[in-house]
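wait is this the right file?? whatever heres the structure
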């Protein structure tokens, strides 16, 4: 099953619609989520028929901006939970029988309203907290300044609000293929501003039930946003599957000389042509290597500490100790 998400930046002219048809013909998605359609009401039927989708939902534009559309094939079952100006929320069953909570999400493009987006995301998480959940869309925010190239640095408090919302929802981003950035301002300019604003997230319940989806950053198709492709695996989850989580540096490593060698070796990869992508790839490689080395050398310290504390509590509360 394949899901596509794309901020089209307007679909009211023939040229934009031709690029949309090209995207759909190349990717053959089962589910298509479109943002910033800038279409009036009652546009759904024309798009659904022209793009060969059996079902759909639409949110008309507000003024000259906004507008959402969700289209899906006949072999996908969708039960709508809620709908709003910036989201679709539903239960979805794939053509392979996978059942999960699905949210198509559009974060506020204005910073002053971004907190409302994170409040909405938390409320969507509370709809079915124990169900596998996949969220996709243009969140209009980055997780760190590593997710941008050019321009001024993003405020740490602004990014932390996004990270806090994801932590509350137990959401993490699977690995992706393609370019590091999904949005570009004036793409033809020499020093253009680029950011990763479009994301796919899955929650902990998803990682326990299914394999990680395959996420790919596609072309722009005449928009300033890349389309995002998410392919769901039909296979059951493997027993050695590990959840992808955000990296945290351990202070313990500073006192171990082996960590220096691991970090140095991780920065020897210079096979990519884009220097920014090279830096990001090396950072990810370094994080994976350090985490793997930590588990092999030190074990799962938090788990071991918790287990030791339980054993101490058991001994302290044993009948032989209480009678002394």
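ok assuming it is, sequence goes like this
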């Amino acid at each position: 099953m394949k899901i596509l998400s794309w901020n089209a930046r307007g679909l009211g002219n023939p040229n934009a619609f031709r690029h949309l048809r090209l995207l759909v013909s190349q990717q053959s998605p089962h589910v298509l989520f479109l943002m910033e359609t800038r279409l009036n009401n009652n546009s759904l039927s024309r798009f659904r028929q022209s793009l060969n989708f059996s079902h759909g939902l639409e949110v008309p534009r507000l003024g000259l901006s906004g507008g959402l559309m969700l289209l899906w094939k006949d072999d996908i079952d969708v039960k709508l939970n809620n709908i709003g100006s910036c989201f679709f929320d539903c239960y979805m069953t794939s053509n392979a029988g996978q059942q999960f909570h699905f949210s198509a999400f559009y974060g506020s493009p204005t910073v002053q309203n971004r907190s409302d987006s994170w409040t909405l995301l938390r409320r969507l998480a509370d709809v079915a907290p124990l169900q596998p959940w996949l969220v996709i869309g243009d969140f209009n925010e980055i997780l760190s300044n590593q997710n941008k190239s050019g321009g001024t640095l993003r405020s740490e408090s602004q990014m932390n609000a996004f990270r806090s919302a994801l932590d509350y929802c137990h959401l993490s981003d699977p690995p992706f293929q393609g370019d590091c950035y999904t949005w570009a301002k004036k793409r033809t300019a020499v020093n253009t501003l680029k950011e990763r604003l479009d994301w796919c997230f899955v929650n902990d319940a998803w990682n326990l039930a299914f394999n990680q989806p395959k996420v790919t950053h596609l072309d722009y198709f005449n928009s300033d946003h890349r389309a995002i492709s998410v392919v769901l695996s039909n296979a059951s989850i493997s027993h050695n599957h590990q959840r992808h989580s955000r990296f945290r540096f351990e202070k313990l490593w500073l006192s171990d000389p082996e960590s220096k060698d691991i970090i140095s070796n991780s920065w020897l990869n210079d096979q990519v042509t884009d220097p920014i992508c090279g830096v990001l790839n090396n950072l990810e490689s370094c994080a994976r290597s350090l985490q793997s080395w930590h588990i092999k050398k030190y074990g799962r310290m938090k788990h071991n500490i918790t287990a030791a504390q339980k054993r101490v509590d058991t001994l302290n509360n044993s009948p032989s100790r209480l009678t002394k």
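Residues 178 and 217 are 5 Å apart (CA to CA). so i think its the right one actually
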